[in-house]
């Protein structure tokens, strides 16, 4: 693969929040590889932003440091990713010693802001995993730091890049059903993937901001991008009725639980070598239990969520998120002045193949797997006409093919103009989390929340390209 550092930095520029910065302002040296550090060497950091970058783009970039609070996981990460760079349990020390060009942030959600802000202040570009952060105060601090720094911040929104989601964008951009007036959007997490959030740090609001933020940031980003408008108000309901203290029994963790035989949710982590190496082998360093009980009392996030969202262009959206569905999938319908578009993925009653619900999420996270050619449909139904079926070739691995396309855009083909504007920066990152943060605040207060009251960003009827 032939790539130049110049191309990479162009891509940063194109993807970035403050994309007003001309490429020359980076002052890069074409003869050197891009120096990258990564903080947060968990499953996402070591695989997608670690090993895959080394495997695919080593000709233009090099890891100069890895950091994590868990020194055991950090050692494992070095070997798994296949790098020789130094390791740091202290992020500040890593910045000072390695002087990177780019910081990649893949830590627990509630800590992203700390590394984003320090990275920007140190004079680095920053690429963060979603969600950008978990509350409005941190979001404002990130905005302030990004404006002061003159550096770039990219949010890794991979879902936009899957061919199916891109096709929906194209149909809407082409005004296929006129102006959109309302949307129904419903996302179903199954009893494997949905349940897994409650086993992990994601089950605590102060770690992941609840699934309104951790998970729904993907969905709200898709909505904002598809509708090409900013959200202006949200009202929500939500409750915890299935997991957490609602369970019939509980144990310390699955491995040692006396209810193994009668718990529908029993999860045998010992069958997964990667999880054993990543988490179980390193429990002694930080006490983090990856196969924790999903009925433990400390869980404080919602397991059913429902919101009404109003957009600055007057589109209204009905959204829901379920976490204990028998199948994993989603449905969306756009109502427009000239018709209706219906799309859905993975609804078992609509497809011919048999999907293993237990394996589904693992498949999504898999990178570079060989898979069968598949197609999925989108229904376009114009007023007074019969409906048309648009068939889209799809894939499952790497988040519906979104993961590798996002990487390629950043590292391989940055110069190619993207007609769908799939690159996301700080404004996109913030607008998507503000819906979830607003929904959470709405449940807590019982009142609708205005997006404009959360940060100094003003919602616009027509989105602007990811600048402040
Ligand atoms: N875009 C996607 O589809 C996608 C998929 C999976 C995860 N993610 C995101 O990636 C991030 C990491 O998720 P994960 O599933 O890899 O979680 P994980 O638990 O496997 O890894 C998190 C890592 O961060 C480390 N960490 C926690 N606090 C830290 C701190 N203060 N300083 C340094 N290290 C710290 C932990 O020790 C752990 O190694 C999350 O933000 C998550 O939302 C995104």
From TrEMBL:
Q: What is this protein called?
A: Gfo/Idh/MocA family oxidoreductase
Q: Which organism is it from?
A: Maribacter aquimaris
| Keyword set, alphabetical order | Signal
| Domain (Gfo/Idh/MocA-like oxidoreductase N-terminal): residue spans on this chain | 34-157
Q: Which InterPro entries match?
A: Gfo/Idh/MocA-like_OxRdtase_C, Gfo/Idh/MocA-like_OxRdtase_N, Gfo/Idh/MocA_Oxidoreductases, NAD(P)-bd_dom_sf
Report the superkingdom from the record.
Bacteria
What PANTHER family does the record tag this protein with? Answer: BILIVERDIN REDUCTASE A, BINDING ROSSMANN FOLD OXIDOREDUCTASE, PUTATIVE (AFU_ORTHOLOGUE AFUA_4G00560)-RELATED
The residues forming the signal peptide are 1-25
Classification via SUPFAM superfamilies: Glyceraldehyde-3-phosphate dehydrogenase-like, C-terminal domain, NAD(P)-binding Rossmann-fold domains
Where would I find the Gfo/Idh/MocA-like oxidoreductase C-terminal domain in this sequence?
169-451
């Amino acid at each position: 693969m032939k790539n130049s550092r110049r191309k990479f930095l162009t891509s940063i520029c194109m993807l970035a929040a403050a994309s007003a910065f001309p490429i020359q302002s980076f002052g890069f040296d074409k003869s050197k590889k891009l120096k990258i550090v990564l903080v947060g060497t968990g499953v996402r950091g070591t695989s997608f932003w670690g090993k895959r970058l080394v495997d695919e783009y080593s000709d233009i970039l090099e890891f100069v440091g890895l950091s994590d609070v868990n020194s055991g996981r950090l050692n494992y990460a070095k070997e798994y990713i296949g790098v020789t760079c130094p390791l740091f349990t202290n992020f500040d020390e890593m910045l000072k010693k390695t002087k990177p060009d780019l910081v990649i942030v893949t830590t627990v959600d509630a800590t992203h802001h700390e590394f984003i802000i320090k990275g920007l202040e140190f004079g680095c570009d920053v690429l963060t995993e979603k969600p950008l952060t978990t509350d409005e105060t941190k979001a404002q601090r990130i905005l302030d730091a990004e404006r002061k720094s003159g550096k770039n911040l990219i949010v890794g929104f991979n879902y936009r890049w899957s061919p199916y989601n891109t096709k929906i964008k194209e149909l809407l951009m082409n005004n296929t059903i006129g102006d959109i007036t309302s949307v129904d959007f419903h996302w179903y997490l199954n009893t494997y993937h949905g349940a897994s959030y409650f086993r992990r740090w994601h089950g605590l609001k102060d770690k992941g901001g609840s699934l309104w933020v951790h998970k729904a940031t993907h969905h709200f980003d898709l909505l904002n991008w598809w509708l090409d408008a900013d959200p202006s108000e949200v009202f929500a309901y939500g409750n915890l009725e299935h997991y957490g203290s609602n369970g019939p029994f509980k144990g310390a963790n699955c491995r040692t639980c006396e209810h193994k035989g009668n718990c529908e949710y029993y999860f045998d982590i010992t069958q997964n070598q990667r999880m054993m190496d990543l988490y179980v082998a390193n429990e002694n360093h930080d006490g983090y239990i990856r196969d924790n009980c999903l009925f433990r009392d400390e869980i404080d996030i919602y397991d059913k969520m429902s919101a009404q969202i109003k957009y600055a262009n007057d589109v209204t959206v009905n959204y829901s998120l379920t976490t204990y569905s028998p199948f994993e999938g989603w449905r969306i319908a756009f109502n427009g002045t000239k018709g209706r578009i219906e799309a859905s993925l993975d609804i078992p009653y609509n497809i011919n193949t048999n999907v293993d619900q237990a394996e589904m999420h693992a498949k999504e996270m898999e990178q570079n797997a060989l898979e069968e050619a598949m197609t999925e449909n989108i229904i376009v139904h114009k007023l007074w006409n019969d409906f048309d079926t648009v068939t889209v070739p799809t894939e499952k691995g790497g988040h519906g093919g979104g993961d590798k396309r996002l990487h390629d855009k950043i590292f391989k083909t940055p110069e190619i103009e993207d007609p769908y504007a799939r690159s996301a920066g700080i404004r996109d990152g913030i607008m998507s989390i503000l819906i979830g943060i607003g929904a959470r605040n709405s449940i807590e207060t019982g009142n609708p929340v205005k997006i404009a009251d959360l940060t100094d960003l003003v919602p616009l009827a027509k989105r602007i390209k990811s600048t402040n």
